Amino acid sequence: MHTMWKGSISFGLVNIPIKLHAATEDKDVKFRSLHKKCHTPIKYEKICPSCEQELDMKEIVKGYEIEKGKFVIIEEDDLKELGVARENKAVEIIDFIKLSEIDPIYFNRSYYMSPDGANVKAYSLLRKALIDSEKAGIAKIMIRSKEQLAVIRVYNGVLLMETIHYPDEVRKTTDVPNIPQADEVSKKEIDTAILLIDQLTTEFAPEKYNDEYRTELLRLIDAKKTGKGLIEVKEQKQVTPVNDLMAALQASIDKTKPETKKKPAARKQQPTAKKRQTKKA
């Protein structure tokens, strides 16, 4: 597993040398843009519209737009000087909290943490302490010239660091348009909706979910690559809109009801030979 960062984490006077590894990967199918005529990959050139000439990376500087058309120029040396004081390759755990206190909207990226070197006792100490206390650590770390807020917790026996957004990076819910202020629904509608939720409730098993579009897309690519032609894609069921809310809920409940096995019809008992003889007598 590729190491993307090396440093240490600390809580109190305990220092733990660690490595960071990306815990997730992007599975998107990526396409290149080609010239339709000759299938040559397209180049994207950096051209100044004023000078009308292509620029080399050495001729490009960073600018922060303070108002339309006016920029403050930031040199690379300015950024380096600013980052040196913080990028000391140490992650300090500032606080310990209950993980349930963090709303999922704050979570950003996940990284596995492995011990760097033979001394794994400090790593084991933090892991065991987090498990027994049922807590997670809040820390700060510099990654790619950005100071990140992070949560350190245990996942399947491995220390996991998840970067989280700062409060001012999460947009306010009050800015979301057209949100109804009151729930204008009847008790019957609520009860029926809860019944539907109960019927659809199950234990979370991530392995049962998959990206069907990506699977079909890869099959299409493979078919074209091997010259098999186009593949047949299963037609998706069309959802008919229902204007009546109660009718929609009831239809959903009927659709998700577990199938009940019909009891086989009871057979008529045939009279035994002895009974037939008695009847004749």
Distance between the amino and carboxyl termini = 90 Å
Number of strands: 11
SSE pattern: EEEEEEHEEHEEEHHHH
Question: Which value, in Å, is the CA radius of gyration?
Answer: 31 Å
Helix content: 10-25%
Present the secondary structure layout.
Layout: E1 5-11, E2 14-22, E3 47-48, E4 53-54, E5 62-67, E6 70-74, H1 76-84, E7 90-97, E8 107-115, H2 121-133, E9 136-143, E10 146-155, E11 158-164, H3 187-200, H4 212-225, H5 245-256, H6 273-280
Parallel strand pairs: 1-7
Antiparallel strand pairs: 1-2, 2-8, 3-4, 5-6, 7-9, 8-11, 9-10, 10-11
Report on the structure:
This protein is an alpha+beta fold. The protein has a domain at 1-24 and 90-170: Ku70, Chain: A, Domain 2 (Beta Barrel). Helix content is 25%, strand content 26%. The protein is built from six helices and eleven strands. It has helices at residues 76-84, 121-133, 187-200, 212-225, 245-256, 273-280, and strands at residues 5-11, 14-22, 47-48, 53-54, 62-67, 70-74, 90-97, 107-115, 136-143, 146-155, 158-164. The strands form three sheets. Strands 1-2-8-11-10-9-7 form a seven-stranded mixed beta barrel. A two-stranded antiparallel ribbon has the order 3-4. A hairpin with a 2-residue loop joins strand 5 and strand 6. Helix 3 (187-200) packs parallel to helix 5 (245-256). The longest helix has 14 residues, at 187-200. The termini are far apart. The relative contact order is 0.11. The model has no long low-confidence stretch (mean pLDDT 82).
Put the structure in a nutshell.
This protein is an alpha+beta fold. The chain contains 6 helices and 11 strands.
